[in-house]
Amino acid sequence: MKFELEEYNRGVTDEELLADLRKVALELNTRAVTRPAYAERGRFGTTTFIRRFGSWFNVLEKAGLEKTRTPINLPIEELFRNLEELWTKLGRQPRHAEVLKPLSKYSLRVYLNRFGTWRRALEEFVTFINQDEAAQIKSPKQESPTEDLELHRTLRTVNWRTRFIVMRRDNFRCKVCGRSPATEPAVVLHVDHIKPWAKGGETLFENLQTLCSVCNIGKSDLD
After folding, report:
1. Which among 193, 188, 194, 192 is positioned nearest to 213, based on CA atoms?
2. Per-residue confidence of the chain (223 residues) as pLDDT tens digits?
3. What's this model's pTM, rounded to 2 decimal places?
4. Which are the contacts of 115, defined by CB distance < 8 A and separation ≥ 6?
5. Which CATH number, 1.10.30, 2.30.170, 2.40.160, 1.20.120, labels domain 141-222?
6. What's the Cα-to-Cα distance from 80 to each of 141, 151, 203, rounded to whole Å?
7. Based on the number of CB atoms within 10 Å of its own CB, is 186 exposed (0-12), middle (13-18) or buried (19 or more)?
8. How many Cβ atoms from other residues are within 10 Å of residue 4's Cβ?
9. What is the β-pairing status of strands 208-212 and 189-193?
């Protein structure tokens, strides 16, 4: 084996370095490239990046990629809420390649570190949601002394898990105009009482519907 010096990269421009890093990210189908991962596939030495930019985090930031340090000790409900938002935006079950910004607050790596596999994360999420469907919708309970106990037997506020169940039932579309974030990202969905709360309507599955923000405002003007 011929003995050779490492490639001399001092004359390489910043953009050449970053372009090669982006190329590796594309090959790996990831938005977060670790230093060892780049070392295996990249054209340049990782020390060249560190000398040029100061740290690997700075390198990733300059390249427009995600930082590889994953948040630790995140509450599991926070991860599920992010998954619920991602599911709502897409209007369907998210695929692992879609777990990236700006769609998702957290990267796929965060879910893999917590659950082991993406499929396992989805299974845990579904179990979590289904528990709420049984507890919150089928057996509503009055929990707040500030609510009108004579008029209502449920709370007015629709918690996020119940909201997701209703939107899933309504195919993540407005029941009035049919618009959806999946086809129009600017659309914001709400869950509203069909029979208004002020007129005795309860926070029950059958009395909730999905409306876009525009239609919900219009409905409020008529109530």
Report:
1. 188
2. 454 444 545 678 999 999 999 999 998 888 888 888 888 889 998 888 888 888 888 888 899 988 766 555 788 999 999 999 999 999 999 998 899 888 898 888 788 878 888 999 999 999 998 886 555 544 444 444 444 445 778 888 898 989 999 999 999 999 999 999 999 999 999 999 999 988 889 989 899 999 999 999 877 655 5
3. 0.60
4. 121, 124
5. 1.10.30
6. 24, 33, 22
7. exposed
8. 6
9. antiparallel
The whole-angstrom separation of Cα 49 and Cα 57 is: 10
- In Å, how far from its chain's centre is CA 23? 25
Calpha distance 216→193 (Å, rounded): 10
66: tokens are 């995600």
3-state secondary structure of 210: strand
**Structure-block tokens of residue 88:** 């709502």
β-sheet bridge partners, residue 211: 190
Query: Domain locations in the chain?
Result: 14-62, 76-124, 141-222
Q: What is the DSSP string of 121-175?
A: HHHHHHHHHHHHIIIIIIS-----TTS-TTT-SS-SS--HHHHHHHHHHTTTS-T
Tokens read off for 183 = 């086809």
